[in-house]
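Reply to dn_fold:

You asked what the input looked like. This is it:
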Amino acid sequence: MIKDTYRVEIINNYSFLARIIEFLKKGFDQSDLYAYKLLDHLLTMNPNSLLQPFGYALFEEDQLIGALLTAHQGNYINNNGKAVSVINLSDWFVSEKSRGIPALIHAKKFIELTKESIITAYTFGEASFKIYERLGFKKMKVLMYRKYKPKFRKLIFHKTIVIKEISNSQIDKRLLPLEKINHLPNIFNFSIKLENNNTIYFSGVKKRVKIKAIYLKSFYILWSSDYYALYKEFDNVHKYLYFNYGCISLFYYVPSFLINKYNLDSKNFREVPFMYKSNFNIDYISPIGSELSLGQF
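and this is what came back:
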């Protein structure tokens, strides 16, 4: 039988993980920096790989033909107060000749082995999206708000607010989207003191993004303690990141309910293909702690 030809192995030791990352680096034609950041990310997020495996490898007899990596993104606290592990699926690659039934076997086995957890996926391509949608994954209710250059004119009559970079430990952990998010080396954290003296927080990464054939230094906001308050201060934040970090473009992931709740202009919003699998009714889980937290390769 075809199923007997293929097997899925759990990646739960360092030497196996190193082999898998090298396989993925070649498969995606990526750099040594990609491999280093991926290894560092998984070792940070999954300190106990026996309880939180690094991923799942697909073999055809003794030949490695596929791999997917999983990082422990944090814990989701359900309505009963129970902590449910959130696993981020990233970097799924299957050799070109095995992208039919073998890839489906790989995906189904992974889901079977992680059925007690919530699974998130933020970087699926079109083919992967369709496969996992058939296997019960749902789209998150999320949009990206973006501006490619700062709008300084809007700030002429706007009262100055105080923005500063802070450490991860300075954020009130009760405000974070998940419990037990580990320290992330590539993440920048900020606080904003608003006009009403309230303080909000946001976190994100710097990247270079190709826009009209030019690579621009950009910033991606992955999480905010108050999505609407940060939206209202978007131009102030954009100005701050431009002058202090050289970030020309600014991208911001937000729950899609903001548009209808606050009657926002949809002009600068677009949908993003974030997905999840869970028995809980969840609209959105921030990508903080996911592979999007790695920053620039």
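The two ends are 41 Å apart (CA to CA).
Hope that clears it up.
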